[in-house]
């Protein structure tokens, strides 16, 4: 299994690498389009602020590479958000893979949402053999429910906790920090 | 529904856990990695590592510890203790910490909060506030509650939120170590003043203290050390009791 974690300078990717290591898979960190294209599976991580992360993607030319990938790609947290049309955070355009705009949580809830919440309405091979359960999230912006939603979560309102389109998958939560359940989701991704 | 978090805190000195730890079947009670894994298995939602060492090798030892914990642990963890620069935070996050907490350095240089948030994002910056009640109201204290400042607890909490902190870890020095319960009145006031999560710390001695701090104190998470280390409260029992009281927890 060749697995590449896209390393474009947006946040801590060590814990994702470790999570796959616990599954017995050694991930390669790279920002080289050739290395990324050749991988069997690709992880698109990200933490931090959306517009500066998009700037980093554009600087490295990855903004045009990622949408053309053919193998399974999993965006995590900000990675998922950047795969959408646009984000309200820093008013930036996204990669346009998922047809939805990312917006900020209303102030009727504490922002950011930090902690363990339940994912529901699971409908993807990503959640094969899994029931609704708790996952760990840290985020201030979210993707509203849309056609590409494959799991939902409720925080003030029901929103998209995961998205999928063709070979692209995105999760708002951190499977690498969501205990055994999160590990199973990563394992399912490896089996796609 | 977002659940309330239970957070054991581990004190670290020179890469080892300090304070007695009462897990009889641990191979090495001073090994932070083994203890962290044990807490994760028991259902802890997050962990905090507070580094209290004061050696020149501190930075390197802590970075190694963070790397070793991140390699094994599949729940989030925060690292605090003497963090005072963007470079300190960069090293800890690169080694696998999910969040860092800053305390005195933020009081001395509040712009540090903005700098860290701009570089790493709000989601990983926790501001820890130690305070106690004085004749002039609740004042922020430094050096484990020994050194008073002029800063008002509630003004400072609002300021750290405005500067972009993702979370506040509030320790009442008047409650810490008493085992008489958390500072629920002050916690509830904090929660009404800021719209970021507030972690209650200081005073845990019984299950009812956790119930109270989530209901009366409106805390989003509760942190404790000795009641967990000495097995006075087992996390699975605690969570079951909280669930019975109608508090959302991850079980």
Automatic annotation (TrEMBL), chain A:
One of its GO terms (biological process) is L-histidine biosynthetic process. It is found in: Cytoplasm. Pathway: Amino-acid biosynthesis; L-histidine biosynthesis; L-histidine from 5-phospho-alpha-D-ribose 1-diphosphate: step 5/9. It comes from the Bacteria. Its EC number is 4.3.2.10, 3.5.1.2. PROSITE patterns: GATASE_TYPE_1 (PS51273). The keyword Lipoprotein does not apply. The active site is at 77 (nucleophile), 174, 176. It catalyses: 5-[(5-phospho-1-deoxy-D-ribulos-1-ylimino)methylamino]-1-(5-phospho-beta-D-ribosyl)imidazole-4-carboxamide + L-glutamine = D-erythro-1-(imidazol-4-yl)glycerol 3-phosphate + 5-amino-1-(5-phospho-beta-D-ribosyl)imidazole-4-carboxamide + L-glutamate + H(+); L-glutamine + H2O = L-glutamate + NH4(+). GO terms for cellular component: cytoplasm. Keywords: Amino-acid biosynthesis, Cytoplasm, Glutamine amidotransferase, Histidine biosynthesis, Hydrolase, Lyase. HAMAP family: HisH. IGPS catalyzes the conversion of PRFAR and glutamine to IGP, AICAR and glutamate. The HisH subunit catalyzes the hydrolysis of glutamine to glutamate and ammonia as part of the synthesis of IGP and AICAR. The resulting ammonia molecule is channeled to the active site of HisF. NCBIfam families: IMP_synth_hisH. Heterodimer of HisH and HisF. This is Imidazole glycerol phosphate synthase subunit HisH. It comes from Croceivirga radicis. The lineage of its organism: Bacteria, Pseudomonadati, Bacteroidota, Flavobacteriia, Flavobacteriales.
UniProtKB/TrEMBL annotation, chain B:
It comes from Croceivirga radicis. The gene is hisF. Belongs to the HisA/HisF family. Keywords: Amino-acid biosynthesis, Cytoplasm, Histidine biosynthesis, Lyase. Heterodimer of HisH and HisF. The keyword Cytoplasm applies. It is found in: Cytoplasm. The lineage of its organism: Bacteria, Pseudomonadati, Bacteroidota, Flavobacteriia, Flavobacteriales. IGPS catalyzes the conversion of PRFAR and glutamine to IGP, AICAR and glutamate. The HisF subunit catalyzes the cyclization activity that produces IGP and AICAR from PRFAR using the ammonia provided by the HisH subunit. The active site is at 11, 130. It catalyses: 5-[(5-phospho-1-deoxy-D-ribulos-1-ylimino)methylamino]-1-(5-phospho-beta-D-ribosyl)imidazole-4-carboxamide + L-glutamine = D-erythro-1-(imidazol-4-yl)glycerol 3-phosphate + 5-amino-1-(5-phospho-beta-D-ribosyl)imidazole-4-carboxamide + L-glutamate + H(+). GO terms for molecular function: imidazoleglycerol-phosphate synthase activity; lyase activity. This is Imidazole glycerol phosphate synthase subunit HisF. Pathway: Amino-acid biosynthesis; L-histidine biosynthesis; L-histidine from 5-phospho-alpha-D-ribose 1-diphosphate: step 5/9.
């Amino acid at each position: 299994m060749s697995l590449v974690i896209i390393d474009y300078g947006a946040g801590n990717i060590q814990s994702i690498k470790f999570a796959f290591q616990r599954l017995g898979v050694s991930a390669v960190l790279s920002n080289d389009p050739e290395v990324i294209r050749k991988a069997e599976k690709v992880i698109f991580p990200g933490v931090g602020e959306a517009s500066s992360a998009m700037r980093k993607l554009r600087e490295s030319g990855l903004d045009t590479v990622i949408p053309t990938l053919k193998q399974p790609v999993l965006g995590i947290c900000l990675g998922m958000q950047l795969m959408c049309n646009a984000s309200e955070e820093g008013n930036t355009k996204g990669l346009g893979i998922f047809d939805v705009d990312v917006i900020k949580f209303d102030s009727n809830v504490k922002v950011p949402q930090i902690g363990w919440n339940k994912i529901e309405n699971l409908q993807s091979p990503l959640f094969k053999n899994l029931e609704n359960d708790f996952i760990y999230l840290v985020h201030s912006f979210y993707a509203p429910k849309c056609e590409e939603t494959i799991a939902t979560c409720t925080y003030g309102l029901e929103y998209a906790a995961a998205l999928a389109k063709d070979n692209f998958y995105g999760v708002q939560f951190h499977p690498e920090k969501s205990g055994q359940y999160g590990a199973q989701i990563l394992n399912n991704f490896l089996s796609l | 529904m977002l659940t309330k978090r239970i957070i054991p805190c581990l004190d670290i000195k020179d890469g080892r856990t300090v304070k007695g730890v009462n897990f009889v079947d641990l191979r090495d009670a001073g090994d932070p990695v083994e203890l962290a894994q044990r807490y994760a298995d028991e259902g802890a939602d997050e962990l905090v590592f507070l580094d209290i060492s004061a050696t020149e090798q501190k930075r390197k030892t802590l970075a190694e510890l963070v790397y070793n914990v991140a390699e094994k642990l599949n729940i989030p963890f925060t690292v605090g203790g003497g963090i005072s620069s963007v470079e300190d935070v960069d090293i800890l996050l690169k080694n696998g910490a999910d969040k860092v907490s800053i305390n005195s350095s933020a009081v001395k240089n509040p712009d540090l909060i903005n700098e860290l948030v701009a570089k790493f994002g709000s989601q990983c910056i926790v501001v820890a506030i130690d305070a106690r009640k004085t004749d002039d109201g609740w004042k922020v204290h430094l050096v484990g509650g020994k050194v008073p400042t002029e800063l008002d607890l509630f003004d400072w909490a609002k300021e750290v939120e405005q500067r972009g902190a993702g979370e506040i870890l509030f320790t009442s020095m008047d409650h810490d170590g008493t085992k008489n319960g958390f500072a629920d009145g002050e916690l509830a006031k904090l929660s009404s003043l800021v719209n970021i999560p507030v972690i209650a710390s200081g005073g845990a001695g019984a299950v009812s203290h956790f119930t109270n701090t989530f209901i009366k104190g409106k805390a989003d998470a509760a942190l404790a050390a000795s009641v967990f280390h000495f097995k006075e409260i087992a996390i699975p029992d605690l969570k079951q009791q909280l669930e019975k009281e109608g508090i959302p927890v991850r079980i």
